[in-house]
From TrEMBL:
<dbReference type="Pfam" id="PF23031">
    <property type="entry name" value="GBD_ELAPOR1"/>
</dbReference>
<dbReference type="Pfam" id="PF23091">
    <property type="entry name" value="TNFR_ELAPOR1_6th"/>
</dbReference>
<feature type="domain" description="Elapor1/2 TNF receptor-like">
    <location>
        <begin position="68"/>
        <end position="108"/>
    </location>
</feature>
<dbReference type="InterPro" id="IPR056610">
    <property type="entry name" value="Elapor1/2_TNFR-like"/>
</dbReference>
<protein>
    <submittedName>
        <fullName>UPF0577 protein KIAA1324-like</fullName>
    </submittedName>
</protein>
<dbReference type="GO" id="GO:0016020">
    <property type="term" value="C:membrane"/>
</dbReference>
<feature type="domain" description="Elapor1/2 galactose binding">
    <location>
        <begin position="111"/>
        <end position="202"/>
    </location>
</feature>
<dbReference type="InterPro" id="IPR039181">
    <property type="entry name" value="Elapor1/2"/>
</dbReference>
<dbReference type="InterPro" id="IPR056608">
    <property type="entry name" value="Elapor1/2_GBD"/>
</dbReference>
């Protein structure tokens, strides 16, 4: 059996399946807050699992406890994590509770667990090469981290974006300098089979402005102070992380 891309001059033999040709996901939590680890082939499936030397798709795991939701979230309908409503709080392992009198929640987005891609976060593949994005699975949640998938073309950018509607603190100037209104921090690691780049960007869409903050390599913890409230100025604040040719 053979395969060919559009415009190819010849057909190629379909290779034996390898570990990189499948990925692991958490099944939705059931009413007992239990889940399973399920393996799926990367689509479209090009490799062959019925030839010598090929790996087979692992079977699903036994039922295991669901990971907790992230702080400020709770399980909704026993299966998906949802944000607490206004004036409520949760550490992620308990249902949301109303704040005691004379207190207020510490509002923020805190992502510590990755059973799924959180609400307001999106992933996509971008390439100039036709057919360069071979799979619609670009970023894969894996419990305590999220990682990019393999199998895309050499020029592919694997994008993870988070929409932030704005910050509660108003912009202000102290001693002639803009004061901090928020903080962004995250830890990442690059494990690359070839040269790769990590880029972190802030995008103000209404002004069609994209500012590249850092290009970093290899692993590090990044923390940045924000001094501009996107909600007041243009209505939307988007974070984008681009990784090119990265295997995590």
């Amino acid at each position: 059996m053979s395969i060919t891309a559009k415009g190819s001059a010849k057909c190629l033999e379909r290779p034996p399946c390898k570990k990189q040709d499948y990925y692991e996901i958490h099944a939705p939590c059931d009413e007992m807050k239990l889940t399973q680890l399920i393996n799926k082939w990367v689509e479209p499936k090009i490799c062959r699992d019925n030839v010598p030397g090929a790996v087979s798709l692992p079977t699903s795991s036994d039922r295991i406890p669901c990971p907790p939701c992230n702080p400020g979230m709770e399980y909704s309908n026993q299966s998906m994590c949802a944000f607490c409503e206004k004036d409520h709080y949760s550490d992620g392992s308990e249902p949301c509770r109303k704040c005691p009198p004379s207190t207020a929640p510490n509002y923020g987005l805190f992502f510590k667990w990755w059973p799924e891609i959180p609400p307001g976060m999106y992933s996509r593949c971008m390439t100039l090469e036709e057919g360069g994005c071979m799979s619609n699975v670009v970023w894969q949640p894996s419990g305590d981290h999220i990682h990019t998938t393999s199998g895309q073309s050499l020029d592919a950018y694997l994008i993870l974006s988070l929409d932030v509607p704005g910050f509660r603190t108003k912009e202000r100037v102290i001693n002639g300098q803009s004061a901090e209104i928020g903080t962004i921090s995250f830890t990442f690691e690059l494990q690359c089979s070839q040269t790769c780049v990590f880029a972190f960007m802030m995008v103000w869409e209404c002004e069609d402005l994209s500012i590249l903050l850092k290009i970093l390599q290899p692993s590090t913890h990044l923390k940045m102070k924000l001094k501009q409230n996107a909600t007041r100025k243009i209505g939307k604040f988007v974070l984008k992380s681009l990784l090119k040719r990265v295997l995590l």
